[in-house]
Amino acid sequence: MSESETSVAAVVAASDQRNTVPLKDRMKIPRTVMPELDPQVRSRNFGEVNLGLPTLEALTEASRCIECAKPGCVVQCPVGVKIKEVVALICAGDYLAAASKMREDNALPAITGRVCPQENQCEGGCVLGKKGAPVAIGNLERFIADYERNSGQLGLPPIATSTGKNVAIVGSGPAGLSAAGDLVQKGHRVRVFEALHELGGVLIYGIPEFRLPKSIVKTEVDNLRRMGVEFETNVVVGKSVTIDELMHNEHFDAVFVATGAGLPQFLGIPGEHFNGVYSANEFLTRINLMRAYADVDQPVYDCRGRDVIVVGGGNTAMDAVRTARRLGARTATLVYRRSQAEMPARVEEAHHAIAEGIELRMLTNPVEFIGDEKGWLTGARCVRMELGEPDADGRRRPVPIAGSEFILPANVAIIGVGTNANPLIQSSTPDLKTNKWNYILADPETMRTSKRGVFAGGDIVTGSATVILAMGAGRKAAVSIHDYLTTGLWR
Amino acid sequence: MYKIVEARSVGLNIKQFVIEAPRIARKQRPGQFVILRLHEKGERIPLTIKSSDPAAGTVTIVVQAIGKTTSLLNCLEAGDSILDIVGPLGHPSDIQNYGTVVILAGSVGTAMALPTANALKQAGNHVIFIEGARSAEMVVFEDAIRQASSEAFVMTDDGTYGEQGLVTKKLQELIAGGLRINFILAVGPVPMMRAVAQIAVPLGIRTMVSLNSIMVDGTGMCGGCRVLLGNQSKFACVDGPEFDAAQVNFEVLMQRNAMYRDKECQSLRDFKEHEQEELAELRAEIAAREKDLAELEIAAPSMQEKHYV
User: Fold this and answer.
1) Taking the CA of residue A479 as centre, how many other CA atoms within 13 Å lie in the half-sphere pointing to its CB?
2) Looking at chain A, which residue has its C-alpha nearest residue B252?
3) Which helix (H) or strand (E) holds A185?
């Protein structure tokens, strides 16, 4: 039965489960399964993998919540979404109210519902997870956000009267967008500067269409625009204008630096200049931002019928290998120097990747890229690894196995092993203090930097992290910026 | 949207554009570049800035039609708009009083070298400018290079203008004539820059080359423009574009610049077949965008330009 044919009676019956079905029986309901695009189909296109829960399934899933007195899910959420209340509103069938409750703490629910690592956050704190499967909070979040968007009844929050204060936000990624939403509500004039030609930062250039459709990011940006946030693209702060010029010449009273982690790390092994070796940032930017898979001018090395390897174990590496597969790679292999258990990528992503025919080569590390006389990549010389003693962050350190070298054939190699801080802002703002890795120093609670009136948050402070942590930083910064603008105190 | 206020042909397939881009005009220094994009499906390409007028809020760029994007760009006229321009990017040229400076520029590279030549002359250097072009109709800005230098030479491959020969022939003549050179800047095709390096570096002359590797974002984010200096990787967009010629691995640069050659040629052939349709499509897209923007302005009257004093 399709969604539109779902009878009102069925929905009413389902909404009532919390009242009619005893807790003991509700606890026996298995976790609903997110419907997915068929792996055979999706590994050849860029359609969204997760299709979203239908209404009845969402209601059933919500009824699994046992309404803990002290909900662990809320504690584990980086932005403290009132999940228990949200789920109760879903059970009551009031999805718009649920979405509105969600927006009190999370300005971008359609996005976080898709890309948050819920297994480590809200769902990791769900008591049901101790014995069985936790409530699918992420899927419910996405359900209400999508319901709200499709209903066209987005409840934009009220905007306070103008304070006459101006805030510049540098970067339109998750940290910048969430700060912009909070600050404009408080009556400040907010202008967001973006270096690229499209708004959304990593949500646009980094996360692929099949995980986060661009139309969703665009809707969120348009909502902020409706709330009065101004956007200016094609401005590289640090080059087109400096922080000092924004404050002195353009009269911004406060600046929030949310530029994200920027510079791609390479492996520093011989042969990295062969044609066909990309950083994951370049590969993903060409595909996601420049849409090199469609009928466009932006060229990307043709993956069709080729062997593609991706080096790394995080979500970026996972995004890259799944993208290569969709571009028609003959083989798409993830090469990671530790074992699957240590992989930082989301569990769901690894499952999706395997279903799409991606090979995981664990405990393998490239030591040299090899190529032909014209400079094209032909393969990677790799060494097998074994796990030794745990290192400083508790993960077992990979150690090369002597004499285990072998050649992995590859026409394309994509390096997704992390990023370094982009220095453009720091180098043009002498009084902005940084740590030894050149990330900006900011107070973890107030997001204040060493420079009066300048705040920073997200990956440019913490190094590569997650969308939700960046959003959390944006929200904290908004509180702190509002305090500074209204009291004039730098505390 | 960035309005073209002036467009004129300055040589065979070479066009000069004056474009409204106030932020870039305010900040531009010699040696820096912009990245532009013409339409929704267009690629981002880097182009060096020839000059800027901060008061008028305009920048001047010079474009030689080589591939699809530059060919389409060169169909545009005054009154048209460019969808996206970002900059100024890269480090400015290092302007010092070196003493005697030789600048070698190949054709459209002349436009890139001009602002640096001017600045070096103003810094008290004796500036010798050698411009090279394939043929007479590709010699550009001759008056400007004479003004920006103390001595200027024009070389053409076929001898149809100035002296016959490559720019390196003139450089070797000057060196053979006993000229003591303190600094060289070469801007042009990679083989030309490599040839200059091969002459100058063994003589211990400090030589800089402006590298034109393939770029995407221009902010250091993608690493596509990486060049090999000795055994170190550098990003042309944020670490350059000018690098010490003694360190540059020109072979790797040429290999990497050829990475998309087949696709570029195909794209250009397709464009040539549909030039007028593509131009009409581009203009329609820009017009639609302008209309959207105008509507946004009405919808959000909070755009308070008064804040920008």
Assistant:
1) 11
2) A273
3) helix A174-185
For residues A170 and A262, give the distance between their C-alpha atoms in angstroms, rounded to a whole number: 13
- Asked if A46 and A284 count as a contact pair (C-beta separation under 8 A), the reply is no
Q: What chain A residue is nearest to B305 in terms of C-alpha separation? A: A250
Q: Which of B222, B228, B308 sits opposite A250 (nearest CB)?
A: B308
A264–B89 CB contact, under 8 Å: no
What is the distance between the alpha carbons of residues B63 and B73, in angstroms, rounded to a whole number?
8
How big is the A-B interface in CB pairs under 8 Å? 139
Residue B299 pLDDT level (bands cut at 50, 70, 90)? low
CA dist., res. B231 & res. B131, Å (int): 32
Nearest to A275 among B69, B256, B304 (CB): B256
Residue type, A45: N
Cis upstream peptide for B241 (omega within 30°): yes
- Spacing of C-alpha A254 from chain mean position: 26
Segment among A146-155, A288-297, A376-385 with least mean pLDDT: A288-297
Query: If you average pLDDT over each of A224-228, A284-288, B74-78, which comes out highest?
Result: B74-78
Contact B86 A228 (CB under 8 A): no
- Are the beta carbons of B302 and A297 separated by less than 8 Å? no
CB A456 within 8 A of CB A447: yes
Of B222, B235, B238, the CB nearest to A285: B222
Contact between chains at B300 and A230 (C-beta distance less than 8 A): yes
Amino acid at A351: H
Mind listing the pLDDT tens digit for each residue in A91-140? 999 999 999 888 888 888 899 999 888 988 999 999 999 889 999 999 99
pTM of the model: 0.90
Q: Cα separation of A449 and A437, whole Å?
A: 16
- Three-state helix/strand/coil letters over A432-490: CCECCCCCECCCCCCCECCCCCEEECCHHHHCCCCHHHHHHHHHHHHHHHHHHHHHCCC
Instruction: Say if the Cβ atoms of B221 and A295 lie within 8 Å.
Output: no
Closest CA to A71 of A63, A83, A61: A83
pLDDT digits (tens, 9 = 90+) for B235-293: 999 999 999 999 999 999 999 888 888 888 888 898 889 999 999 999 999 999 888 87
- Is there a contact between A296 and B41 if contact means CB atoms under 8 Å apart? yes
| Whole-complex ipTM | 0.90
Asked if A189 and B308 come within 8 Å (Cβ–Cβ), the reply is no
Name the residue facing B233 among A205, A266, A299 (closest C-beta). Answer: A266
Give the H or E element holding residue A189: strand A189-193
> Which chain A residues contact residue B68 at CB under 8 A?
297
Which segments within chain B are labelled E, that is strand? Answer: 2-11, 14-20, 33-37, 45-53, 58-64, 81-82, 84-89, 100-106, 126-133, 151-156, 163-164, 183-187, 206-210, 226-229, 232-235, 242-244
**pLDDT, tens digit, for every residue of B69-106?**
999 999 999 999 999 999 999 999 999 999 999 999 99
From chain A, the residues in CB contact with B216 under 8 A are: 282, 285-286, 290, 298
Q: Find the mean pLDDT for residues B191-204.
A: 95
